[in-house]
Amino acid sequence: MAVVKCKPTSPGRRHVVKVVNPELHKGKPYAPLLDSKSKTGGRNNNGRITTRHIGGGHKQHYRIVDFKRNKDGIPAVVERLEYDPNRSANIALVLYKDGERRYILAPKGLKAGDQIQSGVDAAIKTGNCLPMRNIPVGSTVHNIEMKPGKGGQLARSAGSYVQIVARDGAYVTLRLRSGEMRKVLSDCRATIGEVGNSEHMLRVLGKAGATRWRGVRPTVRGTAMNPVDHPHGGGEGRNFGKHPVSPWGQKAKGLKTRSNKRTDKYIVRRRNKK
Questions:
Q1: Where in the chain is the domain with CATH 4.10.950.10?
Q2: Is 254 exposed, middle or buried (0-12, 13-18, 19+ CB in 10 A)?
Q3: CATH of domain 23-201
Q4: Range list for CATH 2.40.50.140 in the chain
Q5: Which of 9, 101, 271, 274 could form a disulfide with 178 if both were Cys (CB 3.0 to 4.6 A apart)?
Q6: Which of 112, 108, 62, 272 is nearest to 200 (CA)?
Q7: Cβ-contact 23, 78 below 8 angstroms
Q8: What is the pTM of this model?
Q9: What is the pLDDT of residues 74-118, one digit of tens each?
Q10: Per-residue DSSP letters for 66-109?
Q11: How much is the average pLDDT of 227-247?
C-alpha cells in the first residue's frame, strides 16, 4: 500500500493525496452479496430536509458484510480484497469449505490465500473470530460485539482497534481508541488484529467536487447567514456576540449530550477530553 501525491497538472490535482493498494480487486464485486441503496437527499417522507448536507453523489451498491462471523468450525480461504464505498475499511471476500462466500472486514496483514476460522476453537491468529473469554488479555481486536450474537459494533473503521486489558468474571474490560474503558460480556465475539487500510486518514480529496461525488453537499457557516436562518446570523462584521450554538439553539461546545443512563455502569472510565 502506497501514499501517492499527485503532480499539480491542474488546480484540482495540486493537493490530491491518494492511497493506492495494488492488492485490491479491480473487477466487479460479488453480485449475490450486493444490495440496492436508495438515495433520500436528506429528506423524509414529507419531502422536508431532516439531515443537512446530503444529496447527489455517485450511485453505489451496498455490500452485505458478515459482522456476526457465526460459521463456527468451518475454515475459509480469502479469495480477494475489495474496495467498499460504504466504509473506510476494505473488505475481503472469503470462501468457506462448504461453498458459501461472505464478505468480512479486511484486517491489517490479511491477503488473498490466507485461511481464517470462527468459533471457540479458532487459533489466536489475525482474521480469526472467537469469544473474548478465549482471547488472551493484552490482545488487539476489532469488530467487537456489544451483545452476544448481535454482530460486531465497535472498532469497524479503517485502522481502528481495541485492546483487551482485563478479564473479571463474566465481563472483559476494553480500552477503546478514544481512551474510554468499557466492560463487555466475555461471551461477545471479536476478531483478532486491527482493521486494515490505516493510511485512509492520510488521503486528501483535493477539490470540492470529490466531496460532491461522495454525496456530501456544502456546509454554510451560521455567521454567514441572516438572523432568521441561524442564531449566529446578522450583526456587524464577523462577530455574533454569543456562545456558539447549533442552528436549533443547543450549545455547540462542552455540553454533554449522552442520555443513555442505562449503560453507564459498563463504562469504567470516560473517553479522553480533546
A1: 220-267
A2: exposed
A3: 2.40.50.140
A4: 23-201
A5: 271
A6: 108
A7: no
A8: 0.91
A9: 999 999 999 999 999 999 999 999 999 999 999 999 999 999 999
A10: -SS---BT--EEEEEEE--TTSSS-EEEEEETTS-EEEEE-BTT
A11: 92
Q: Cell numbers 468450525 correspond to what residue?
A: 73
d(CA 167, CA 139): 12
Q: Is the Cβ–Cβ distance between 173 and 166 less than 8 Å?
A: yes
Euclidean distance between CA atoms 160 and 52, whole angstroms: 27
Residue 98's beta-bridge partner residues?
Answer: none
Name the residue among 136, 248, 121, 133 with its Cα closest to residue 189. 133
> Residues near 87 by Cβ (< 8 Å), separated by ≥ 6?
65, 156, 157, 158
Q: How far apart are CA 172 and CA 190, in angstroms?
A: 12
Domain 220-267 has CATH 3.40.50.300: no
Residue 136 Cα distances to 64, 69, 122, angstroms: 30, 19, 13
Could you give the CA distance from residue 24 to residue 100 in angstroms, rounded to a whole number? 21
